[in-house]
Amino acid sequence: MEASTQGRTTALETSAGSQMPDAAQGLVQLAGLVQAAFARAADQHHLTPVQARLLCVLAEGPRGMADLARGFGVEKAALTGLVDRAERRGLVERVRVAGDRRAVRVALTDAGHLSAAAFHAEVTRGLHALVAPLPPEERVTFEAALAAIAHAAGSSGLWGLGRAC
Question: Are 87 and 55 in contact (CB under 8 A)?
Answer without folding.
Answer: no
